[in-house]
Design brief:
The structure is a single chain. It is built from 12 helices and no strands. The protein is mainly alpha-helical. The longest helix has 33 residues. Helix 9 runs antiparallel to helix 10 and helix 9 runs antiparallel to helix 11. The chain is globular, with a radius of gyration of 20 Å.
Length: 324
């Protein structure tokens, strides 16, 4: 929620800038290990409300930090369309996890109880951290590292995106608007509608979530091919048009079949941010900014949307349901 978004807003710029100075690997592994500890704490002390809230806030910051620095690592090695294609490939893996995760989680919860889902998550995160510590190479060479400047690690450093020309400013605002329309902000209200209007049980809701994961994976596969074929700019336009159609359809047809049909409309635009983020990264890199700093700046600009979106959607949902 909003607390987690504020935590990532405050922490990620420092992690990104530190990774520009000391390398990516230790921060990638460290964030994954911290996530494992948070999940383990919920398994051990999930009855404590403060532990639940604290673990949620810290996990949000560490997972965002992980993705921020992972993206910086990719941009150390790739640029342009190649970087966009690499982001789409990570989306394929993310989509697969969204498909498999709810199924495994439901199985574990039904057999062993809800708290054991967190134990499984902690074990998976610990395994990932271990594998990365052994297998992952450092992407930022010593000669590319930048001296640490804490003034460049402040949470408001993203203002640079707004003060370095009209093209960068327009791209930054477009990115923020795209983030407000992320499905992750809408899904909590979709599940409420499924439960309260359509009387779907948890298993049916889980199926809908898994089908969306399949949609995400297929969309990422298509995005990888489309971006390589038509380039970043046209891919951004095409993706936004697909999202407009999908959201309009889903707002009208919220049942099982309507939701699945809307998912299909999302497919061409599910990776809508990849091309735009690559274009912004290339513009920032041309100004000599560190890739970790760039990744964190864009993340914080997106975090503004993450701070606003929950309140915006909860207010909209309350207003819509109160009026029938």
């Amino acid at each position: 929620g909003t607390l987690g978004a504020l935590a990532e807003f405050g922490v990620c710029p420092a992690m990104g800038r530190l990774s520009d100075s000391y390398g990516r690997k230790q921060f990638i592994v460290g964030n994954m290990a911290a996530s494992a500890l948070m999940e383990l704490s919920v398994y051990l002390m999930g009855h404590n409300k403060n532990v639940l809230i604290g673990a949620g806030v810290v996990s949000t910051a560490t997972m965002t930090g992980f993705m921020t620095i992972l993206r910086a690592g990719l941009s150390d090695k790739l640029t342009g369309t190649d970087l966009g294609v690499a982001h789409a490939r990570t989306g394929i893996a993310a989509g697969l996890s969204v498909i498999v995760g709810p199924l495994i989680g439901s199985f574990v919860a039904s057999r062993f109880g809800n708290r054991h889902v967190y134990l499984l998550a902690a074990m998976m995160s610990a395994i990932n951290a271990t594998l990365m510590s052994v297998k992952l190479g450092e992407t930022l060479n010593e000669d590319k590292r930048k001296p640490m400047k804490w003034e460049e690690a402040n949470p408001l450093s993203f203002i640079k995106l707004l003060s370095n020309g009209a093209a960068m400013r327009f791209g930054a605002f477009a990115l923020a608007m795209q983030c407000i329309a992320e499905p992750r902000f809408v899904f909590p209200y979709a599940t409420l509608i499924w439960r309260e209007r359509h009387n779907y049980d948890a298993a049916t809701q889980g199926k809908l979530s898994s089908i969306f994961g399949l949609t995400y994976m297929v969309g990422a596969i298509i995005a990888k091919k489309r971006m390589a074929k038509i380039g970043q700019r046209r891919h951004v336009t095409e993706s936004n048009l697909a999202n407009v159609l999908a959201w309009l359809a889903w707002s009208r047809y919220t049942g099982f079949n309507g939701s699945v049909a809307s998912y299909a409309l999302f497919i061409p635009g599910i990776r809508k941010r990849d091309g735009l983020e690559v274009m912004l990264t290339d513009q920032c890199s041309a100004r000599g900014w560190g890739k970790g700093e760039i990744s964190a700046m864009m993340n914080n600009f997106k975090s503004m949307s993450a701070v606003m979106a929950p309140s915006l959607f909860s207010t909209s949902y309350t207003a819509a349901t109160s009026n029938g």
